[in-house]
Write a structure and sequence with these properties.
Elements: H1 10-13, H2 19-30, H3 47-62, H4 76-86, H5 88-91, H6 108-113, E1 129-133, E2 141-145, H7 147-162, E3 175-181, E4 189-193, E5 199-205, H8 216-224, E6 228-231, H9 233-240, E7 250-253, H10 260-270, E8 274-280, E9 284-290, E10 295-298, E11 303-308, E12 321-327, E13 335-347, E14 354-359, E15 365-367, E16 373-375, H11 376-383, E17 392-395, E18 401-406, H12 412-423, E19 428-433, E20 442-444
Helix pairs in contact: 3-7, 9-10, 11-12
Length: about 450
């Protein structure tokens, strides 16, 4: 490493930082119960960026996602042409086809092979940033981004919150958002949000190893009193074990599947809505679950969603297939027919389009004791009432089932009973999910399971 390279300062990380912002950073970092922050990260937003994000938020909150049920969005043709003009991967294909559906689909594998071929040539590189993600597909991915792109997430989260009557209002000298993790190694930092008058933002790890005293976890959360708490089912399950008295206005699940049982337990404990947001590093916040709408309601007005069969053909309205997206708000990674690996049906409602029966990764069938086949969606429904942070179900070649549950779960008997009711008297073994395990939720050794 070049010895002349120096670590970024707070001025580099927070170009618009004021005295109030400095006080907030000090409060987050130096509170007597503060965690051990392992990393440093900042918004890197200039005054021009903050102004642009304000305009973007106004547009996002007023815009309406959607397109005609039998057509495509009005903006799509121009977007396709621009991508073919500016993005090396598509420029190598020649001219775009007349029919959008003739465009080739891509997946995480293509992006992982050479992400640089998907970055527009005119994009200045001096402020390019990236996010590394591993996922569960075996294709590690480096996602190109920009400070403004990272700042745009807030607009879509506000849109989701507004659907449930919540308008975030915490600003100067208040902590707006705390992001939770719970894993042995976790990227943690303190920051401020300029578009919310430098309200505090912190990513913390609830794993005891990141605290001088495990009891500090509840004390710190109570002292910071965040307006919004974001996390995933694993960190939320740990949060339920802490004697915290904080009263956030909402919890946001931004990763992994949230069961109805865990959502209900969180809502009862914290007396606030728990929003399940379907989000991906490649695409950002895509949709938010609304039971009244029948599924996950789309959030982005510049994101076109198709539902495709394994051959890449659009399925009929209401049929399940792979969620495939084009467009998006990340101008560093414009996407065309990107297959997400997630599956759902799409319904056009009188308001916004809705993803129904959304499930991650390819569907897996499970064979009943009497020989019938059931979809993994049926398993999700059968176990959905249990407050499980995560689980994995595997069917062996002889039909026996192996269910993996969190080590501290109290749902073993209830889960066993639910699966027996659903799949009959099949042999069933229970196994503990070890800490930091990344598991596939549904899998099978049976030939006809997919």
């Amino acid at each position: 490493m070049d010895a002349r390279v120096t670590e970024a300062s707070d001025h580099d990380r927070y170009p618009t930082l004021t005295d109030a912002g400095r006080r907030m950073l000090q409060r987050l970092r130096e509170h007597p119960s503060a965690p051990i922050f392992r990393n440093c990260s900042g918004n890197r937003l200039t005054h021009d960026d903050v102004a642009a994000l304000g305009e973007f938020e106004q547009h996002t909150l007023a815009a309406s996602p959607g397109w005609p049920a039998t057509g495509t969005p009005a903006w799509l043709d121009a977007f396709v042409q621009r991508v073919f003009d500016e993005v090396p991967y598509y420029r190598a294909l020649g001219s775009p086809p007349r029919d959008f559906r003739q465009l080739p689909t891509i997946s995480r594998a293509e992006l992982s092979a050479d992400i640089t071929r998907f970055v527009p040539d005119p994009l200045p590189l001096d402020r390019l940033i990236n996010f590394r993600t591993t996922g569960t597909t075996g294709h590690p991915l480096l996602v190109p981004s920009h400070p403004q792109v990272a700042g745009r997430y807030l607009a879509f989260h506000k849109r989701a919150l507004r659907r449930f009557g919540i308008v975030p209002r915490h600003g100067r000298d208040q902590v707006g958002v705390i992001l939770l993790g719970h894993q042995r190694k976790c990227f943690t930092y303190a920051s401020v949000t300029p578009t919310m008058d430098e309200s505090g933002l912190a990513k913390i790890n609830l794993h005891p190893d990141d605290w001088r005293d495990p009891a500090d976890r509840a004390r710190y959360l109570d002292a910071m009193a965040p307006e919004i708490v974001a996390g995933d089912p694993i960190s939320f399950a740990e949060l339920l074990r802490l004697p915290t008295r904080m009263r956030p206005r909402a919890l946001l699940n931004v990763s992994m599947t949230l069961t109805a049982g865990l959502r209900a337990e969180l809502e009862q404990r914290f007396a606030c809505p728990v929003l399940d947001i379907y989000s991906m590093n490649e695409v950002g916040p895509i949709a938010v679950f609304d039971a009244a709408a029948g599924g996950h309601v789309l959030l982005q007005d510049r994101l076109y969603v198709e539902i495709l069969d394994p051959a890449g053909r659009p399925v009929a309205e209401g049929q399940r297939g792979e969620v495939t997206v084009s467009g998006g708000f990340n101008f560093c990674l414009p996407l065309l027919r990107y297959r997400t690996g997630d599956h759902a049906a799409l319904a056009h409602t009188a308001a916004d389009p809705v993803l129904c029966e959304l499930a991650g990764r390819a569907p897996v069938r499970f064979r009943h004791a009497d020989g019938r086949w059931l979809n993994n969606i049926d398993v999700s429904h059968a176990l959905g009432h249990l407050p499980l942070a995560h689980y994995g179900l595997h069917q062996q070649a002889d039909g026996a089932l192996a269910l993996r549950l969190p080590a501290q779960s109290s749902c073993d008997d209830d889960a066993r009973l639910a699966l027996r009711v659903l799949l009959g008297e099949l042999p069933l073994s229970l196994h503990a999910i070890e800490e930091d395990d990344k598991i596939m939720q549904y899998s099978s050794d049976l030939d006809d399971a997919r």
